[in-house]
Amino acid sequence: MKKGITFLISILIIGYTRAQDYSNYHPSATRINDLVHTKLKVGFDIPNEKLLGEAWITLKPHFYPTDSLTLDAKGMEISTLNLNGNKALKYTYNDDKLKIKLDKSYQRNETYTIYIKYIAIPGSIKQKGSEAIHDAKGLYFINPRGENKDKPTQIWTQGETESNSCWFPTIDKPNQKSSEEIYITIPDKYVTLSNGILKNQTKNSDGTRTDYWKFDKKHAPYLFFMGIGEFSIVKDKWRNIPVEYYVDKEYEPYAKQIFGDTPSMIEYFSTILQYPYPWEKYSQMVGKDYVSGAMENTTCTLHDENALQKPGQLIDKNSWEPVIAHELFHHWFGDLATTESWSNLPVNESFANYSEYLWLEHKYGKDYAEEHRDNEREGYMYGGENFAKDLIRFKYKDREDMLDAVSYNKGGLILHMLRNYLGDDAFFSGMSLYLKTNEYKATEAHHLRLAWEEVSGKDLNWFFNQWFFGNGHPKLKSAYTYNESKKTVTVTLTQNQEPKFQFPLDIDIYENGKPTRHHVWVKASETNSFELPFKYKPQLVNINPDKVLLCELNDDKTIEQYNIQYKYAAEYSSRKEAISKLADAQTSHAEALETLLKAASSDKFDGLRTFAISKLDETNPTVKQKSASILEKIATSDSKTLVQAEAIKQLAKIDATKYKDLFIKSFNSPSYSVKAATILGVLKVDKNAASELVTKITDKNPGNDLSIAMAKTAIVNKDISQLALISKNFLNLLLSAESQEEADTYFGSLQTIMMGDYPNETQNIVDSILKIYPQAKKYSFGGVMLQIMQGSLQMKQQASNASPLNQSLADQVKYISDGLNKMK
To answer: Please, one GO biological process term (predicted)?
Structure first.
């Protein structure tokens, strides 16, 4: 958003009347000079984690004449700086800023090129990471000295928010756009990936190779990328555009099972947006030790290694599929039309978040997509601090704070509300108009509003003021009165929050098992009442049945009404709500248990079958007696493996001894989730038999569920040879503990590692803690993690003191100590 008078006028125009405090206001970066083109030549001192670079940066004044230039350049040694490769220029380099005095005053549209020779040293970077991106060095050397034999050597970059200036000088702001070319010199055994097209490769006499990548279109500096390593490249295509998947060689046979829907996604998104995929290729790379989930670098997304899955996991579910859709959709919303400031980040992230829903709805149907949206809603609701944050917010402590459940989760939920209000045709046509109007430009939320208003003819100030420029959500309490003589039901809604919201709302009235939907408009007042007709006294009044409206609703219903709701409601959200409420009453209401068991065995959606099974209270004798035979059938014959696995978990609670043979037989399933459940079931009654099952698993990377089951088996059997497996899964083990006694067992394994010379295992634990600590520190578990690190340091120091000549132990002490410093 613009500063000063223009900003204030725009506020008045949209009718945004709340008093504003600008004491911590973060405006869009003032554009004095504009990037035009960036040319880079880079090589590496890999063992010492340094980039040896040359940069030719072409710029021009944005509007006013200028004789100076400021570039972002973090953690660099500058050896040469001149104009056009020959004329030396005066400059200062302080606080990660290169301030350059140009040779004259340049006019707008008059370009000039700055040449800089430099060394980038990411280890010297001081800026911190965030909840979403837990490190901010920009350039990462993975296993650079080959010390970890189980990990490949890789180099990759991570630019968001403003970290690409850690490896090349630039104006590192999202409202800048530049074309680029880059020459990457690396040992010949490695492959490279960057933005745009690989134009040529040149083998050098010293055993290196130089790859030349060129990207002719414009994009923001934070989207520049390079990735280097020993990858297999699996080729695919969409229409005539190359699509590629860069994966570890182990995963080459499965790359298309993981990423193979990408061409279909490109086709679907191109169609609904009425805007074909705008770039010349699309590649996806999976990097080791990545500092976030995934990043939408233009034409070359980088994914965390959790993307890598084997057929035994994929048969359950491609857990990474929503992320694949998310990063692809950014190539329209984020890469093509880009937020002009981090305050406006939701113009990127809310759309990418909602694309996950769109794709799942398209491929799997409404229930599947609604399950995903329900998880997004819970993610937003879980953090109460989210409620005080505007979606578009110009006040934040740090720009990294914008990468949160408001920009992502709430942003996507808001778009779903707007889609339902406008209708699909207007919603998608407005998105298309926004893209076509703002392609290759920097944008803000008002551009979205204007596009949707232009298409629909509707004024949307009321919506944007509440949901984009406001915070919180409605907190509603309902009441009902019936008038038999008038044949009406009066629904009264009370809003218990400030400010009050206005919104459209759906209300279903059930008569004889059939709902009639009423569309009402709730005004921004404390109380709203709606008199709705009926023929027969309603069995049920169901407010917000699809949970389209993001709200909290206090709506007391009887168990009988929840039974009716589950039996007749078509909506996922209504069925799930009914299952949850009936589960609470399963031990006191026979009808509630009967319906819960029906949902577990025969709901049309496997996600709700799994949910219903997980809610069974097997500590209750009646529940045990009535559910056992049903769960046996589900465990052996349900069409979905995740449902089978959940049933096996419950059978283990009922009587693990009785069902041991069923568990062992189920171990033959190709599903890793089923295998994991069977191992844990057998482990309850026969630790040796469980260990024998584990020995049959030959996959060295079997995914989270199976790895946790294997690690638990190793701990119970006190198998010290499996400390590497235990260390990789330590946090997941701790989080899955069902009792303090079980947690203490896992801490015993930690003590074994920390009191001995186990460098890789120590590093695994520290790395896993550092990865999630930025999120965990907001909650009590963050304190536990800090205590784990402090205790680990103390134990490892004791081990080192007992063996003062052991350099390995000294190095481990330093690794833990460095980790603790990062947590401060």
So the answer is: peptide catabolic process
Please check the confidence at residue 22 and state whether its pLDDT lies above 80.
no
CA angle 301-130-221, nearest 5°?
45
Which residues, including other chains, have CB under 8 Å from residue 418's CB and lie 6 or more apart? 427, 452, 460, 463, 467
Place of tokens 């599929």: 321
Closest CA to 494 of 551, 442, 532: 551
Q: Which amino acid is at 562?
A: Y
pLDDT band at 19 (very low <50, low <70, confident <90, very high): very low
Model confidence at 5, pLDDT cuts 50, 70, 90, reads very low
**Complete domains list, the chain, with CATH:** 33-230 (2.60.40.1730), 235-310 (3.30.2010.30), 337-467 (1.10.390.10), 475-556 (2.60.40.1840)
d(CA 133, CA 158): 9
Please give the Cα distance from 464 to 823 (Å, whole number): 37
pLDDT of residue 210: 98
Residue 291, helix vs strand vs coil: coil
767-802 in b/e burial notation, b at 16+ Cβ within 10 A? ebbbbbbbbbeeeebbeebbebbeebbebbbebbee
Rounded to 10 deg, the angle between the 366-382 and 572-584 helix axes is: 60
Find residue 148's DSSP bridge partners: none
- For residues 761 and 552, give the distance between their C-alpha atoms in angstroms, rounded to a whole number: 45
pLDDT of residue 383: 72
Structure tokens, 663:
């568990």
Q: Please check the confidence at residue 221 and state whether its pLDDT lies above 60.
A: yes
Cβ neighbors of 370 (< 8 A, separation 6 or more) are 546, 571, 572, 573
Residue 21's pLDDT band, with cuts at 50, 70 and 90, is low
Structure-token pair, residue 3: 């500063």
Measured CA distances, 506 to 463, 518, 532, 545, 605 (Å)? 17, 6, 12, 7, 23
- What integer pLDDT is reported at residue 17 of this predicted model? 36
Residues 6+ apart with CB under 8 A from 97: 70, 71, 72, 73
* 98-116 confidence digits (pLDDT tens): 999 999 999 999 999 999 9
List all residues 6 or more positions away from 629 whose beta carbon is below 8 Å from its beta carbon.
none
Instruction: Name the H helices within 308-403.
Output: 311-314, 321-329, 346-364, 366-382
Mean pLDDT confidence for 37-55? 98
Query: How many CA atoms lie less than 13 Å away from 3 in the CB half-sphere?
Result: 9
Residue 674 pLDDT > 60, yes or no?
yes
Give me 384's structure tokens: 């109460």
The residues that bridge with 504 in the sheet, in sequence order, are 521
Residue corresponding to tokens 């996959």: 699
**Selection from 242, 313, 249 nearest residue 277 by Cα:** 242
Q: Given a cut of 90, is residue 776 above it in pLDDT?
A: no
pLDDT in tens, 481-520: 999 999 999 999 999 999 999 999 999 999 999 999 999 9
pLDDT of 12 above 50: no
Classify burial at 362, counting beta carbons within 10 Å of its beta carbon; exposed 0-12, middle 13-18, buried 19 or more.
middle
* Distance from the first to the final alpha carbon of the chain: 33
Q: Which residues pair with 488 in a beta bridge?
A: 483, 533
DSSP 694-754: HHT---S---HHHHHHHHHHHHHTT-GGGHHHHHHTHHHHHHH-SSHHHHHHHHHHHHHHH
**With left for phi above 0 and alpha for psi between -120 and 50, is residue 273 left, alpha or beta?**
alpha
pLDDT of residue 627 exceeding 80: yes
Rounded Cα gap, residues 360 and 351, in angstroms: 14
Mean residue pLDDT of the chain comes to: 94
Nearest to 711 by CA among 698, 688, 727, 689: 727
